[in-house]
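User: My collaborator and I are trying to settle a disagreement about how two of our proteins should look. Neither of us wants to argue from intuition anymore, so we agreed to look at predicted structures for both before our next call. Could you fold the first one, then the second, and keep them clearly separated?

Assistant: That sounds like a sensible way to settle it. I'll keep them separate. The first protein:
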Amino acid sequence: MCTRKCSKCIGVTLFPLAACAIVTNILLYFPNGQVLQLSEITDLVWFFHGILGAGILVILPALMLLGAGGAGCCANRCGMLLSVVLSVLGFAGGAYCVVISSLGLIGGPLCNTGDGEYLYPFRNDTLEDNYLFNQTMWSICKEPENIVLWNIILFSILLAIGVIETILCFIQVISGLSGFICGTCMRKRKVGMQ
């Protein structure tokens, strides 16, 4: 397959994933649809792992790769090298999202445990006592309502998006390097040699 076609397929896939990551990260600011004080929002949300990491840093290579299907940016070796550089940036953004999402799942949400004070009741749990595997512990959080489920679902979505983006960007790095080294389309090279 031509590296241009591969690039366009990856770009078409990355763009909606990046958009979903941005929306998912924004939803983390409004637990259960409520508007909270800034000090009542889980700290890891402020790392912008979905907006910046899996969003903007992945949209850059996605936009470049969407144009790769034509005879433009990936029809030459400089274009393929640029796609490699941007894909490495996308890989870093996806990996950043994976790390922060994992930490968000492990640490749990910031919530009111009933005494009016917001804290992280699950931060010091061991793996055996982890709230992810013990749904009865979720009742510790009184406010915002369903905050534990909200965080688990949204951080899990961001984790999955980050993993997929990281894999796709890595594939594009390999494809881009092969296009840079060997040329963008082996079939055209063989036809030209006859």
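The second protein, kept apart from the first:
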Amino acid sequence: MSHIAVERNRRRQMNEHLKVLRSLTPCFYVKRGDQASIIGGVIEFIKELHQIVQSLESKKRRKSSSPSPSTAPSPKPFQLSPKPDSPFAFNTDQFKEVGSCCNSPIADVEAKISGSNVILRTISRRIPGQIVKIINVLEKLSFEILHLNISSMEDTVLFSFVIKIGLECQVSVEELALEVQQSFCSEAVCV
């Protein structure tokens, strides 16, 4: 009899904790109400928050090590390798095989292959209309957007796309990362 009561109490606590997790997670992360969906959605949400924290830490390090605004140099050209303090930095042996980063003072862009899809992530300050520019680039390159997630904190925004590689698509992940990076630039900076 006591085993049944203990088990009932355990299930009640589990359901309460799942309700709290679901209430703390934005609704688009949790598609259904079952336990596996709730836990999976919470995991994805925590991953996104972790990336934002890394981005903010990186931004803080860049601010503390950059010269004063009056002596700041103009933005540098793009680089096609991850910076060690980049929120997208990962093992460079794997980097050559599965993905590409294109970082600039304006934005960090990562594109990597995941099965028959590409995962594209960008972290930048909030720029009005930027999401439309990225979508236009993806459509121009014959990618189909399967999923888009937007996370923001203060003036920093993370766009995370899952995109399907179209039959007409003839670009590498390096070219994709560079094209998306260039969408962040104004004509004055990119010329």
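Some points you might bring to the call about the second protein. Residues 35-65 form the longest helix (31 residues). The beta strands are 99-103, 107-114, 117-125, 143-153, 156-165.
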